[in-house]
């Protein structure tokens, strides 16, 4: 017979170690002593803060989309763009896959985050356990890396600095609302507490048979703890219904396949032109690397450094680090597991910032449309490079960091 109860336990989602939950004070965080992963941060009165942030965010989201966003003026001609003007420009050029990636990352996921959090908190304040709350909490967690408004903002800044050499930049009211929206979403991610939401939805967080000494597995969705014997007949979490597994299924194989695909796409993304510029009837093309060199030649050194690291250093480093981790967990473990765990977290965090170059070109395509005077079109490398970013992000998500500690333990017993 299954026993359900509430126990003060917490598991590290990175390495899998189980702890008794200690008291965590206001604005304090609880780190795993094995891998230094942040397991819990307690924010007092987070519900009221997140509610205020979310309502303000929805208002700012609407304002950012209905008011003029950014424009340029050169030789008496003015070209304006809305928040999703780059998406519309890509659709007009039949770049549907690239347009979809940009639309999802700068519009769809941020909107889902705002509406999802509002739905959850409305139900919580009314104490109504409405349908789909658990699913929305889980989707908010897994979609978090794919909302890229802050990266898009940096991309706009880089594009504006590049255009400032030959055109006047016009900042509309929409971009100020957008800046506020970016800050709001960052604050939401800091304060929102998944643990408190699940505790409100279903207080019981421990499920086992009568044997208390059984090994337990932590649910990656609701962080409930389930004994291994309960998973033999039904591998679903009794608390949230999510499929439970000791490790991510076929993690090594999936991550390897995604890295190989990313490596294949990385070659044309560096060889093909990323954009084509027409100025006074003369056409020129830029690759990722030649674009950096051009920025250096025009003394835009800070921009060149940002683009160089985001477009060249980060993708290569991510491919190398993920390959190194795969080698250690599947072939020959040599190294410090704490350092490997830290490398994995850094790779997982910085990988998405390579989208800067995609957003820069998208913004330039939307703004620089002056016919023979000046015109910018996307090149074949842009889609390839966006594919590299997406595939390496997926590779980081399919890699199971618990394998690092399993390989380390196996190495110790050999």
Polypeptide structure, described:
There is one protein chain. With 414 residues, the protein is α+β, with helices and mostly antiparallel strands. The chain has helices at residues 46-66, 85-92, 96-125, 133-143, 149-163, 173-191, 194-201, 251-271, 288-297, 301-330, 337-350, 356-367, 380-398, 402-413, and strands spanning 3-5, 9-11, 18-20, 29-31, 38-41, 70-74, 77-81, 168-171, 206-208, 216-218, 225-227, 275-279, 282-286, 374-378. The strands form 5 sheets. The protein has a 4-stranded mixed β-sheet, with no helix packed on it. A 3-stranded antiparallel β-sheet has the order 7-6-8. A hairpin with a 2-residue loop joins strand 12 and strand 13 (282-286). The mean pLDDT is 90.
Task: Furnish the topology, listing elements before pairings.
Layout (H helix, E strand, L loop, with lengths): L2 E3 L3 E3 L6 E3 L8 E3 L6 E4 L4 H21 L3 E5 L2 E5 L3 H8 L3 H30 L7 H11 L5 H15 L4 E4 L1 H19 L2 H8 L4 E3 L7 E3 L6 E3 L23 H21 L3 E5 L2 E5 L1 H10 L3 H30 L6 H14 L5 H12 L6 E5 L1 H19 L3 H12 L1
Parallel strand pairs: 9-11
Antiparallel strand pairs: 1-9, 2-3, 4-5, 6-7, 6-8, 10-11, 12-13, 12-14
Helix pairs in contact: 1-3, 1-6, 2-3, 2-12, 3-4, 4-7, 5-12, 8-10, 8-13, 9-10, 10-11, 10-13, 10-14
């Amino acid at each position: 017979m299954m026993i359900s109860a509430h126990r003060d336990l917490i598991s590290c989602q990175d390495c899998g170690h189980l702890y008794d939950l200690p008291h965590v004070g206001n604005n304090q965080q609880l780190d795993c002593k094995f891998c230094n992963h942040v397991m819990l941060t307690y924010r007092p009165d987070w519900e009221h803060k997140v509610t205020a942030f979310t309502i303000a965010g929805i208002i700012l989201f609407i304002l950012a989309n209905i008011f003029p966003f950014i424009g340029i003026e050169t030789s008496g001609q003015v070209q304006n763009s809305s928040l999703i003007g780059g998406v519309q420009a890509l659709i007009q050029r039949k770049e549907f896959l690239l347009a979809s990636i940009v639309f999802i990352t700068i519009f769809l996921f941020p909107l889902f985050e705002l509406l999802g959090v509002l739905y959850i908190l409305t139900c919580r304040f009314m104490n109504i356990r409405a349908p789909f709350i658990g699913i929305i909490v889980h989707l908010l967690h897994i979609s978090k890396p794919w909302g890229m408004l802050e990266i898009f903002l940096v991309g706009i800044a880089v594009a504006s600095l590049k255009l400032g050499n030959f055109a006047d930049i016009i900042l509309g009211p929409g971009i100020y609302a957008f800046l506020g929206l970016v800050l709001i979403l960052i604050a939401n991610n800091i304060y929102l507490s998944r643990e408190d939401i699940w505790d409100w939805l279903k207080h019981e967080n421990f499920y086992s048979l009568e044997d208390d000494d059984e090994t337990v597995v932590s649910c990656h969705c609701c962080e409930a703890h389930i004994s291994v014997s309960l998973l033999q007949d039904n591998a679903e979490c009794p608390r949230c219904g999510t499929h439970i597994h000791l490790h991510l299924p076929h993690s090594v194989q999936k991550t390897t396949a995604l890295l190989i695909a990313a490596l294949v796409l990385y070659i044309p993304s560096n060889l093909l032109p990323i954009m084509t510029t027409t100025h006074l009837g003369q056409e020129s093309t830029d690759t990722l690397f030649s674009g950096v060199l051009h920025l250096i030649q025009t003394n835009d050194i800070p921009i060149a450094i940002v683009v160089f690291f985001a477009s060249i250093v980060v993708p290569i480093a991510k491919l190398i680090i993920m390959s190194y981790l795969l080698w250690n967990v599947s072939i020959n473990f040599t190294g410090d597991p704490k350092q490997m765990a830290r490398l994995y977290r850094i790779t997982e965090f910085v990988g998405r910032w390579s989208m800067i170059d995609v957003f820069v070109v998208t913004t330039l395509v939307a703004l620089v449309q002056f016919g023979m005077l000046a015109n910018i079109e996307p090149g074949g490398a842009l889609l390839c490079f966006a594919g590299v970013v997406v595939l390496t992000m997926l590779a980081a998500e399919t890699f199971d960091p618990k394998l690092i500690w399993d390989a380390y333990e196996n190495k110790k017993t050999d």
